[in-house]
Structures are given as C-alpha cells and as structure tokens.
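Run log // design_07
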C-alpha cells in the first residue's frame, strides 16, 4: 500500500495495490494488520473499526462538515467506490499546531484512494458526479447526542470547494445553519 502524508501530519492518503488482468482487477481494500503498521509508522495510536457506513449522493450534494465529541469521537477511513467526490478534513483539535487548517483530496472509483481522518477532525465532502457511493469505516459508534456540525462554507476556514458554475448545491438545513469556526472558538463549543 502506498501512503502519502498531507500538510496535516495525521491525515494520510492510502492507495491500495491493484492487480489487473484481462478479467478486471482485484485489490485488498482493508487489512487490519497493514493499517496498524501504517499508523504505527506515522506515530499514531492503533484503532479498531466498529461501524461501516455507505451513502449515495447526487452531483452537487455536500455532506458535512460533521464530527462527534467525546466519548463518541470518531476516526474515519473513507473511500469512494462509484463516482467521484472531493473530501475535506478540518483540524478541530484546539491544542494542535494545525488547528483550523484543512486538507481536501479527490476520491474516486478510478483512483481507489482512501483517506484516513483520525478523531479530532470535522469531515465533509461534495459529490462531483451523480450516484457517488461513499464508504467509511468508523472507530466509534454513531451517537446522536454527540453529533456536531461545522459550517461547510465558513469564510474563516476558506475551504476551496470545487463548485462548478452549473452545479446545483444541495445540503441539509443542519449543515447550512451549523456554527461557524469563530463561534466554536469564541464559545468554546465542543472542540476536541
């Protein structure tokens, strides 16, 4: 597996090895032993996944920026199995040197990339094609009481979402009315 570090050291891009022939292709999409070795090599604690989630989104759908607070904070290993998405993680760890910074990468059925996002990050994506299927493994269970959101288009975060002129943006009221980054900081709202 090829591992690429990002500008935020704990966020990793994983690219599984592909084995292709005239029949198609094969890849090992997850191996706990390999994943633990990757985390250890990057000075991160090992984790266990407890839940898999699968969503489908139409082009222009934005989901996020979402996170969960303790005791249900989640790390996520995300990938796209059909279509294409631009995926974003924002560092909301208040003691981190990269607090408030973000990383965005393209995930698609063609590039087979996976994105490791540890607990302490708000996460979201925009579907760049219809019928984009997004899979993610989580290190903790979903908890409605611990679920939080951060405003996806916050001007202080200045996330460079790849929104095209003819793209109809679609998201929930919860995502449109989420607190801004300044509100989270000024009110010390549920930062990790």
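design_07 sequence
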């Amino acid at each position: 597996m090829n591992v690429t570090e990002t500008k935020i050291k704990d966020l990793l891009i994983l690219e599984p090895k592909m084995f292709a022939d005239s029949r198609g292709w094969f890849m090992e999409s997850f191996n706990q032993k390999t994943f633990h070795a990757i985390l250890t090599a990057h000075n991160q604690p090992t984790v266990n996944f407890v839940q898999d989630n699968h969503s489908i989104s139409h082009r222009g759908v934005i989901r996020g920026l979402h996170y969960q607070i303790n005791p249900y904070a989640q790390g996520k290993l995300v990938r796209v199995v059909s279509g294409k998405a631009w995926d974003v993680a924002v560092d909301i760890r208040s003691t981190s040197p990269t607090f408030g910074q973000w990383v965005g990468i393209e995930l698609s059925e063609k590039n087979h990339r996976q994105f490791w996002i540890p607990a302490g990050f708000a996460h979201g994506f925009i579907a760049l094609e219809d019928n984009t299927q997004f899979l993610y493994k989580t290190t903790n269970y979903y908890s409605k009481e611990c679920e939080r959101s951060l405003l996806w288009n916050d001007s202080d975060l200045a996330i460079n979402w790849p929104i095209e002129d003819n793209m109809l943006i679609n998201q929930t009221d919860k995502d449109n009315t989420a607190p801004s980054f300044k509100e989270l900081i000024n009110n010390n709202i549920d930062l990790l």
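The chain is about 10% helix and 40% strand.
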